[in-house]
Design brief:
Strand content: under 5%
Largest sheet: none
Helix content: over 70%
Radius of gyration: 25 Å
Number of domains: 2
Number of strands: 0
Length: 501
């Protein structure tokens, strides 16, 4: 069965590659390879002795393993989705176990092997016994990651009805924490090398991603028994995940879904049903809450935007970034909204077939984004600026916030009609979508450039009306450009978003 499924996976993947963008795929592979090699070199560098090395590699492992699992939970299985085999007369457990074995052939595991390869190099420097232990630890870590990624895709991925449970929030919080850790990576590495943050070192050693490096250090210190215990721990986790896998994937293939409580009989009233723009706003607000992709991106924006500015205050005692938590959240939210039409897919057909609906559609999407993002961004900015205790921060915080909010209102629809990217066959983001988000991050931040120049020139409170003015210009100007492009390229956009890769 495994051989047949491997052939099926190869055939489906080959067909999917036909409609993909080679440049985007090559770019993704190059970035992944560079990240893996960079992580390898980081583990080979001088890291402050065995303890510091173990902590640094444990942190690197946590980022790679956590990122792999979170990506699988968000995007699901892009090729062999479990529900495709629901009608086959095969034992569910056997089929689910076969799918978990095939997950070991994921190309992402090759990048993970390279990224964590410093474990083997370090073990070889301690002698043959430590080298063997290091090699086993590396293999077990990769296997555990692959099995957990398959479980996450089956339990939380698209098709698992995660849109109305806590799965979406779990994925969003996990990605947010990983993103904040990656942002603070330089300062964390310095602290780990100097062994100045004891609780962080202990936390990294307790997590399974730190058991492999700890086993290598233990073997290097002559405690082979302690190293074996850690390896047995990894093997035990693999066994537990392997036993849970058939149950999770079996429920997915059988179509059983968790029960939800009784819905309230009260239904929300339609907002001004005679107004097309208000109808679009009502529809968009529901999508921001119910669509797993949108809700995940929104939660990431709110957590990462605020967390990246608050964590330095908690770890280093600096309040320099505190006033800009709301602005950063708005920038990330604007970047996450850069592909609204691509995320909605063929739903744009409703706009294409309704004469005169383009303006209402674009304006409704703009206002709904502002309704969702602005209250949190404003509240975060006011609270964090007040906590910073520096009155001079107010014009900077308010001016930049006004600018990026207006820039986000304009950027969201315009970037969505420029190079719309369809989701993959499983309803998850494609590499092209991720690349577009990163480009949009830079563009969204640049919308605050005029206000920033006024502030740097000593403009003070004059920067606030400048931020409001530039925000209005971006919101109205980009909105009109989006309306014009959607009017002239409706068919092209429709063809682009219904293409699956």
């Amino acid at each position: 069965m495994v051989r047949v499924l491997i052939d099926l996976q190869r055939t489906i993947a080959r067909r999917q590659l036909v409609g993909s963008h080679p440049a985007m795929m090559i770019t993704t592979v190059v970035f992944a390879a560079l990240a893996a090699v960079g992580t390898l070199l980081l583990g080979l560098a001088e890291n402050g002795g065995p303890a510091g090395w173990a902590d640094v590699v444990a942190l690197s492992s946590l980022l790679w393993v956590g990122g792999r699992i979170a990506q699988s939970a968000m995007a699901g299985e892009p090729v062999l989705r479990p529900e495709l085999f629901a009608v086959l007369p095969l034992p569910r457990r056997k089929l689910a176990a076969s799918l978990m074995l095939i997950g070991l052939l994921d190309p992402a595991n090759a990048f993970l092997l390279v990224a964590l390869g410093s474990v083997v190099v370090k073990g070889a420097s301690y002698g043959p016994a430590a080298a063997v232990i290091a090699a086993v630890a590396l293999v077990l870590t990769v296997v555990l990651t692959s099995v957990c990624a398959t479980l996450a895709a089956g339990l939380l991925g698209p098709g698992s009805a995660r849109g109305r449970d806590l799965g979406t929030l779990v994925v969003a919080v996990a990605i947010s924490l990983l993103a904040m850790t990656g942002t603070l990576l330089p300062s964390l590495l310095i602290a780990l090398r100097q062994q100045s943050v004891g609780w962080l070192s202990q936390l990294l050693r307790v997590l399974p991603t730190g058991w492999g490096p700890s086993a290598v250090v233990a073997a290097g210190n002559g405690s082979v028994a302690g190293a074996v215990v850690l390896l047995v721990g990894l093997l035990t986790l693999i066994a537990i995940a392997g036993l849970a896998g058939p149950v999770v994937l079996g429920r997915r293939m059988s179509g059983r879904r968790p029960r939800h409580g009784r819905r309230g009989r009260a239904r929300s009233r339609r907002l001004l049903s005679s107004n097309a723009t208000a109808a679009v706003i009502a529809k968009e607000l529901r999508l921001w809450v119910r669509d797993p992709m949108r809700l995940t991106c929104l939660v990431i924006a709110l957590i990462v935007g605020t967390g990246a500015c608050v964590v330095p205050q908690l770890t280093a005692g600096t309040d320099l970034l505190l006033p800009y938590g709301g602005s950063l959240a708005a920038v990330i939210a604007a970047a996450c909204a850069c592909n609204l039409y691509g995320n909605d897919g063929a739903a744009i057909w409703l706009t294409v077939t309704a004469p005169g609906s383009v303006t209402a559609d674009v304006v409704g999407r703009q206002l709904s984004w502002l309704i969702v993002v602005a209250p949190y961004a404003i509240a975060s900015t006011v609270v964090l600026t007040a906590l910073s205790g520096q009155p001079a921060n107010w014009p900077w915080a308010l001016g930049l916030l006004a600018a990026v909010l207006g820039g986000g209102v304009g950027l969201a629809p315009l970037s969505s009609v420029i190079s719309p990217q369809p989701l993959d066959a499983a309803g998850g983001p494609t590499p092209a979508f991720s690349l577009k988000v990163h480009v949009a991050l830079i563009v969204a931040a640049l919308t605050a450039a005029p206000t920033l120049l006024v502030l740097l020139a000593g403009g003070g409170w004059r920067a606030v009306p400048v931020g409001v003015l530039t925000g209005l210009v971006f919101a109205i100007g980009c909105g009109r450009l989006a309306i014009g492009r959607l009017n002239t390229h409706q068919v092209d956009i429709l063809q682009a978003v219904i293409r699956t890769t």
